[in-house]
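Subject: complex prediction, re-run

Hi both,

The earlier run crashed halfway through, so I resubmitted it with identical inputs.
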Amino acid sequence: MAGRFFPAALMARRNLTRTKMRSLLASLGIVIGVVAIASLGMFGVALQYSFTQNLGDVGNQLTVYPNSGENITELTERDIRAIRREASPTATVSPVKTRVEPVSYNREDAVRETIYGIDNPGELYTAKEGRVSPFRTGALVGSDVAEEHDLHPGSQITVNGTNVRIRAVLEEGDPFSSTNPDNRVIMPAASFSQRGYSEVYITESTGTRANETAMGIRDSLNEREQRVFVQELGSIVDTIEQQFQIINTVLAGIASISLLVAGISILNVMLMSTVERREEIGVLRAVGYQKRDVLKVMLMEATLLGFLGGIAGVILSVGAGLAINHYAVGDAMAVFRLPNAWYVGAAFTFGVLTSIVSGLYPAWKAASEEPVDALRG
Amino acid sequence: MTVIDAQGLVKRYRTGGQTLYALAGIDFALESGEFVSIMGPSGSGKTTLLNILGLLDTPTEGTVLLEGQDVTGLGDRKRTSLRKRTIGFVFQHFYLLPTLTAVENVEVPLLLDSDPEVTKRARTLLERLGLGDRLDHKPDELSGGQKQRVAIARSLINSPKVVLADEPTGNLDSETGRQILDEFRRIADEDDVAIVAVTHDDLVNEYVDRTVHLVDGTIGRERKNGG
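This time it finished cleanly. Structure:
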């Protein structure tokens, strides 16, 4: 008999079975609270995860812009050399020129579009159709442009009155990357008349390297005046992840309101129970139970309610997590990742704690009643 | 041997501007193996006296000696552990825990001690009281007399020096009441346990060694039985 070792648990368990429906409803509150916290937490994690998946590896990308605020409109060859010095040897440095030209697709009216000039697009892009390298004439288009105007390798577009042949349609890029080619028309930089560059893309092997390079570029180019801006996608990702963290915390906070309600319902159930069992508790005190013994038995009941609800809540939460991850991430098994375990564990702990805290007052009330008063009936 | 010796017990209550005397100076001594009944009308202070003797309550004035030790001014914790060691209680309404079996109910006073011998002792006590075939029954499967026997077994589980009974036959028919009183008599004689029963029931007086009559918080005539 397990009660041999946990006599208080034996009495508590029997007492809960006395009013099964009531105990069940009380711990149902805890179940709902635990499921709410855990599944909202896991929902946030899944959201964050699918977001990071979309981001891919933009964390190692840098973009350098001229500081137009200081009247610097383009980067010179000297700037590019300085940037190449700062970047690590394995990095790809792609200077980009831009100009705005009237572009006409399929003999439609010309619209003004930004044309990007890159010398070595093979470093940045791969072709979906056609070939990227070598790139001396013609144009490359992003997949969205190609789809909108039904362009394929060999199609012709008109740029500033000149016919240009499409060499390749590019593979889709990361939606958050500043190198994303999907909406762009790219032509060889050699075909541009201006000498300066409007931005430089740097791809490092890791996010840490990217960060070091960013600092190096700022040090060497911005020494005397604020010549350039360096945008680190990694830091944007960090900011966005912080936002997600805040959203998660708020969601969990909202969910914990349901635990508060559950706690009140346990408080209510326990108070009713102490009133109903007033004489029994008086007898316990009479036959030699100390106040803290009574406290122990009553708190054990609250704890059992919390455990019951908590365990059921955890089981349901894992079920809910499987569904959330199946739909949000496309991989139900992603529920078994560490942050989820953290949320489920925290929800369970809060559930049990809530019921113990709710049990404190009724237990204290039961324990501090004078046996003489309780037994007077 | 004197188990309980109470001298000059006074219990005063203040309600509003009035002072109420539940006990107005009572001397009461109890020898081991003695079976005593306390009788008196409602409000005569019977239950108050029983509560004070059982260390559930403290007197306003006077002293209580339990086995020669002065227990008058003890705090709740010490009184509680003394109750656990030396006193057994039997109530009119039995007050068994409805969720526990007969054996478990008898074990209740010592349940938190996790002493493996307690269960054996509880069974023996119940068998002695004729409930050998009801050991694992819940209270709602027992008759009134059987419930009171379980309660008596419970009061004996800690091998007390004194058993205090509040209207032990109050909820029983006279036939069952007699059986219960027989048990008390036997316990007093065989186990050398002192028993005090507060009662309205004249039947009790056929079994006791003496009867104390309380009137308005003082001791009226005392009658010795047999001799």
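The beta strands of chain A are 61-66, 92-105, 111-117, 127-130, 139-141, 156-159, 162-170, 185-187, 199-203, 228-232.

- K.
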